[in-house]
Protein 1
Amino acid sequence: MISRINLGIILIMIPAVSSIVQAECPLDHLIIGCNRDGIEGTDDDRQLFVDSRQKYRDSGETEYANWFYPLHKSIFPSYSYRVGEPGLDAFQSTNPSAAYTYDPNRALAGEPEADYNIFIECVDMSEGIRAVHKDYPQFTIDTVGQSFSHSAIYHQRDDSHMHMSYQAVDGENLHWITFCLYDSLDDGDKYEPSEPFTIVFNTEPLTGDLVVDGIVDIADLMELSRYWLATDAGRKNDYYERADANRDGLVNLGDFALMASNWHVIP
Ligand SMILES: [Ca+2]
Ligand SMILES: [Ca+2]
């Protein structure tokens, strides 16, 4: 009798525990969604984006201390310096108890692979870094132009939560991977590609190095101009991909001055 009662409790508990585990994964995640401003009827309704509120959360002694992920020496002889975050997840509209991933205003409509097929494409990376998906289906991103379907993995597992291992040949130099999201379905109701977003490793880029590549030049100035006079910079948008260099919420002359101070500096 006791065991039957216990079994009943366990069966009831399984869905709740599962959703809690997903919500409480201790690693950082980038959350895939659309309609960044959360308001219907504006230009970004069909545009993809990643929410960055957890990005770099675990990168230093205190939350958000650094603008990079330190890579740690591993036992593996090749690409020895590694970190297992940030992962990826998606906004959803069905489980209100799943912490902040529940956001119906920003969730993609329909089912992954059937109604949308979100690819994550590497559009830039430093030499000597790669991203490895160790779980099934295994793959490695080590060349610009490579991509994988987040929606396929989501569909396969019935779970949007995934992680990759970021691996580099050293633990000191600036490394980066820049991704972009796009919807490969061509059904007339396609989502628009996201802005590029960059994950940085080992050391903080120069202030103003917005298109991260180790130097502050005209490409960075053009990037700053895209966000010029923007408000509401914060963790959700990674301070507009670091355009708000002094993290005061605004992209303005103060940030331009910081960029100018590093103009054409080669570290
Ligand atoms: Ca740059
Ligand atoms: Ca600012």
Protein 2
Amino acid sequence: MSNPLEETGDSSFMSQYTVVMVDDEQNILQSLKRCFRREQYTVVCAGSGAEGLKLVAATTNIAVIISDQRMPEMNGSEFLTRTRELAPNATRMLLTGYSDMETTVAAMNEGGATHYIGKPWEDSALLQTVRDCVRHYHLTIENRRQQEIINQQNEELLSWNQNLKDRVMAQTVQIRKQIDDLRALNLCQQDTFHGMVESLAALVELRVQKSRHHSAATAALSVAMAESLGLPEHERETIRTAALLHDIGKNAMSDSALASDDGSFSDEQLLKYRAHPVLGQTALDSIVAMRPAGVLIRHHHERYDGTGFPDGLAGDAIPIGSAIIALADLCDREMSRQVGSNGVERALGTIAKQAGKAFLPSLLPHLTAPAHALFDHRFELHDELLEHEVAPIKLTSGMMLTRDLFSRSGLLLLQAWTELDEAKVIALQRIFTIDPIGTIHVTTRRKG
Ligand SMILES: [Fe+2]
Ligand SMILES: [Fe+2]
């Protein structure tokens, strides 16, 4: 890197420095002083080595020390050597005649002197040499000062970096913890939401005894169809919620109407029945998170040909979730009428006849596999299960209820064919401590 001082020729810095001259001969000192009188740096003189040492010890910023070699008591090279500790960065010059050349070389080899000036000297050459030495001294000192600043700034930068790293680490740990907390809270809220939906579905089925397990079956078929259609997870969740609660509006119907078939409704019962999708939507409307499911519930009795209710929507105007639930609902009702191992084929055959009228024909292929799975599951469970009774305290996850489970006070806790997991076992055992019950019918494995 170029030095700005050298480029501009600025020599104002010279005034900060001092040049020391030592000679036992006053006339030589006088002529040296005369030679240097116009220089910007300070010139101080001493008449002996001892006096010179005192002067050097008491003076700062000494850039150059010039000493005569031939002096009594302490010669020039000894004097210069002794100044090394006092002014280590100063340039040391020996004034010497030709006859002292041997001593001068020795002094330079030992490191006491770095330059020598032969007597008699050329004023302009001497002035230039001393100026160069002062400049060199200044550059050395300035470089050192700047290096110290750089070192200090580097240390500060390192310290800042470390500090920053520590703070980023601490904040990362904190953010991770907040994300974990949020995730846990979210899971907890999801569990609460699912629990609430399942409780509501259980309440519906408690009231609508005729269609026990219908909500769960409709939900299972609907979710499987939604998966097969490649619908995103949040839509599948909405469809599941709507399917579980699709008939919640039936709570407004009388017991006698609920016990009747739609074909035997009186006019008043029919009106109530046809209102149940809208009543279901209205019941959920106050819960913001349930509004999308409420829309699907409203339209679960629409038909593809536009002859359904409550709005008479047709074709693509029916939300896909509602169309799925309507088909799942139809499928479960058809399968409930069938018995025997090929009942599902008969049910699907009956349903297929309504393609293009009750439902979108392209949905049918997505129903086949879920319908078989559900039917086989029920068939196996009904015909091949090993049922036994256990006390609440003996419940373990993996067991499956074989009958609806009620508390002693008559509250439906879980439906038959619900598989118990750790959370359900804990919840049941907690309920039984406040509302006891005898034994519970479960199965843990099937034959063959
Ligand atoms: Fe319905
Ligand atoms: Fe239904």
Protein 3
Amino acid sequence: MASVKFEGVHKVYPNGYVGVEDFNLTIGDGEFMIFVGPSGCGKSTTMRMVAGLEDISRGTITIGEKVVNTVPPRDRDIAMVFQDYALYPHMSVRENLSLGLRLRKTPKAEIHERVTQAATVLGLDTYMDRKPRELSGGQRQRVALGRAIVRRPQVFLFDEPLSNLDPKLRTGMRVEIKRLHRSLASTMIYVTHDQLEAMTLGDRIVVINHGKIQQVGRPIDVYNKPQNIFTAGFIGSPPMNFFTLTLHREDGALFLRSENFSLKLSEDHPIAHTLSKPFVGSPRLTAGIRAEHLKIARTQSATPSIHAQVEVVEPAAPEVFLYLKSGDASFVMRDDSLLEPVVSPGQTLGVYSEPENIHLFDGNGERLT
Ligand SMILES: Nc1ncnc2c1ncn2[C@@H]1O[C@H](COP(=O)(O)OP(=O)(O)O)[C@@H](O)[C@H]1O
Ligand SMILES: [Mg+2]
């Protein structure tokens, strides 16, 4: 097992395209790290540089104590599982699992021991003599994982290994991979474009966009405190709602306003300190509120801060999603106390959010407080 360290890593493709820019990150020994971002953001490029399948244009990658920039893939002691894993169709599960070790001339007794252990961990014991065509998609995927496990590498690299599975199988495999990480206690880097997979699997996640790291942190911290609008909109489902507002100071109090939105911020709201310097007048900000943090104002004390029209009611037991419109802004709220159809399309509602659940971003999309 080993740590993996990226220092100032860049990837410029021969056509000049910058796939990865100034990537700096240390993945701890035994850590389960997730790279998440939209398709084309540079996840696979980064993984391929770790694996040695792609040159590093600038910077260094260190595995354990060793800078691996010029180390050939086979000497890096890593094992990779891709989305398009290919099993050998004419070989049994046992032969597929042992092939890599046989090619490396590993002693027979050791091959037997490692293959047996991997099969046990993955629950493949009873399928060892079957050919891949006699297996389900999930079982085949487990064989692909098994081929990586028998290598006992310092670092596992997973590049969207579950993308080809149907949703139900994916959930099952997610749990298995997590269990695998616990039992092997190895360093794992796992790439996905699926934010749910990212939120549920890893110790930490690295949010990537356009080849650049946007944020690194524990899933819950990234969720609770996204550092910019990109991360705020990418992590969480449904995506965070955004509203363009202006900030006003009236009678010493702070308000966020738009045509249909009026929110009073507390006197000691951290933004008040920011306000005095860069902001003069009524600066435009983006306020972000997650669907579960919007509430219907049912009582006098809960002052509605948004007046909105219900467009669509989407029951998704045990919750209900309400799609609302207020002026130009469309947004969604999630409510688990709305199981009876008390709200119907066309209705006007007063909606509010607690101030602490409102995320504020400046004109560059950076978090303000
Ligand atoms: N050989 C290449 N030459 C030029 N551009 C490439 C090459 N390979 C990948 N890219 C580009 O680099 C970007 C990142 O690709 P990739 O790392 O595969 O993204 P991801 O895995 O996040 O979907 C994409 O825009 C892709 O088109
Ligand atoms: Mg990819």
Protein 4
Amino acid sequence: MFRRDALDEAQYRMDVRTWLEANLPVALRGRTTRPSPLELMPWYHTLSRKGWIAPHWPRQYGGMGATLNEQIIMAEELARIGAPHLPVQGLNHIGPILMEFGTAAQKAQHLPPIIAGTVIWAQGYSEPGAGSDLASLSTRATLEGDHFVVQGHKIWTTWAHHSDWMFALVRTDPRAQPRQAGISFLLVDLRSPGIRISPIKTIAGDDEFSEVFLDEVIVPAENLVGKLNDGWRIANALLGHERLATSNPQFSLTALERIKTMARASGIIADPAFQDRLAAASINVTALSAMFSHAVELTNHEKSLGPESSVIKIFGSELLQALNDLLIEAAGGHALADRPIATDFGEVDVATPFLQSRRVTIYGGSSEIQRNVLARRVLDLPT
Ligand SMILES: Cc1cc2nc3c(=O)[nH]c(=O)nc-3n(C[C@H](O)[C@H](O)[C@H](O)COP(=O)(O)OP(=O)(O)OC[C@H]3O[C@@H](n4cnc5c(N)ncnc54)[C@H](O)[C@@H]3O)c2cc1C
């Protein structure tokens, strides 16, 4: 922790801790892969009924309207108890975007089901030929009267096979120059005819993402967010939210706790050289919490983040990988096990979080791309 709780915050922390202890099912604690919707969504619904599912959303949209410190306390307490990773595409990505850019009808239709957890969202940005170079995307949407006809192929779409809706970047003007000026932002009902979804297994063994094939899919024109061909601006605003959300210190705090448990169990905790590395890692996690709180504060004032989102994305994701390297060191020879290790302090899964942490420097824009952004937009270097 980089800050001390004021008296009322300490009380709030105890309330959150007590409630989580009483309500988060033990089977969902300390999970290293995201549980299936069947297991996870009841927990989402419990948080929603409590009014805690969206600490950062304003009350008018069903959020908690929590102060910055309350949001940080919530993240720390969720990490402390090992709460599972919720589907965030609705809560952290499209929700805030609709609040900023959506029509009244879009807000009324889509925000309440996100809060209630009755609808799950997916993000349709990447394509087989458009990842880092997202502006080269080729999924085509042609406006025909009161609807678009969408034809194309999305890939790496997190939880698409469990989702009801997908926000997608589509090309609406193939001749526009620069290419970014021909892209629009559409809300696509994944139950529409012409959609086929095919899950992909990751190196950690979970089916986190999918390919989405769109064949002459009809999307009503009112599902356009913002103006026609102005999707790039919205896409970038959303990526700012995404980079911030994926840098939530909750994940690093959980990783730190896992290292400590493993190090106690293996005995390496007594090694002064390991203690030095653990101390350095703890300081970096505290620094991430401080950075995160600064970024959240900026978002509260300015809605969308600028290059700060790249700084925190690089720091948060590379820190998570460094923490998982330290976890391997703490486990020593046991790190070779491809299943959780039984210890005197409970089971510790080492292999899965290590493998899963490979992905964090890729999604939401890779570390290399974030460094390019900073080189161009902050340092004004030639590209
Ligand atoms: C777990 C996970 C979940 C994801 N979820 C989603 C999702 O829900 N929706 C979605 O749309 N996408 C999702 N993605 C896709 C993600 O956004 C892309 O993987 C990412 O943008 C990189 O694109 P790519 O995979 O095509 O790699 P490429 O763009 O082919 O890049 C390959 C490598 O080359 C490097 N590189 C590329 N261009 C440059 C350059 N100009 N300068 C320096 N280096 C460069 C990259 O950094 C990378 O290391 C997810 C990815 C992962 C791993």
